C-alpha cells in the first residue's frame, strides 16, 4: 500500500478567501487549451485567429461550468433538486458532471460557430484535442481533494483517503482517470489530428475513447453514494452516460471517412 500524500486541498488563502487546488486545476485546463489552440491557430492558414481561440475558450469555459453544474444536479441529484431547486446554485457545496459539461460545451460551441460562420463540427474537431488537458487537471484536483476514490482493493498501490469514513485501502481511481482521460487521450487526439482528417473524425475519436476509458475506470471506482449501482451489481451512472458517447463516436468516424469532407481549417502542425 502507498501512503496518500494528504495535500491540503486549499492552495492558499487571502484573508477570508480560500483558493482550492480544484479551482486552480480548472485554470490550468483552460490555460493549457488556450496555449494549444494558439499553437494550432498559427498553422491553420488564417482560418483560426487568436481572437477566435480566445472566444472559443471563453465560450467553452461557460459551457463547462454551467453545463457541468446543471448536469450534476439532473444526473446525480435530481430527487434532491425536485425537493429543493435552490441546490442548483449552491456551487460552494461542490458537484460537477463531465457529461453535463460536455453538453454545455456543445451548446456553447453552437453559438460560437454561428457567430463566426463556422460548421459546428469543424469547431469541435479543432478543440477536441485540447479537452483532455482540462480533464486530466480536473482528476488531479479530485485526487488532491481526496474525493471520488475507487473501490476497496489489496493491490500494492492502494491508498487510504483521509475523507473516507471507512478508512479502507482503495484504488486511486482519480489517478487512473488522469492517466487515461488526460495523458493517453491527449496523445491519441493530438497525434491523430496532426494531419488533416475528414470532418467528424476528431470529434468522433474523442467521444469514442473517452467513453471507453470512463466505462473501464468505473469498474474500479466507487459509485456515487446517492445512486449506487443501477443494475447487475456493477452498472453505474457514469457507464450508462458514457455508452452513447462510444456509439456516437463510432458513428461520427464512419460518417467522416465515408464522406471524406475536409474542413477549411487544417489541423496539421507542419
Secondary-structure map with pairings?
Layout: E1 10-14, E2 17-20, H1 21-41, H2 50-76, H3 78-83, H4 98-116, H5 120-127, H6 131-144, E3 159-160, E4 169-170, H7 173-192, H8 201-218, H9 237-259
Antiparallel strand pairs: 1-2, 3-4
Helix pairs in contact: 1-2, 1-6, 2-4, 6-7, 7-8, 8-9
Protein architecture, described:
This protein is mainly alpha-helical and 270 residues long. The protein contains 9 helices and 4 strands. The strands form 2 sheets. A two-stranded antiparallel sheet has the order 1-2. A two-stranded antiparallel sheet has the order 3-4. Strand 3 and strand 4 form a beta hairpin. The longest helix has 27 residues.
Keywords:
270 residues, mainly alpha, two-stranded antiparallel sheet, 9 helices, 58% helix, globular, disordered C terminus
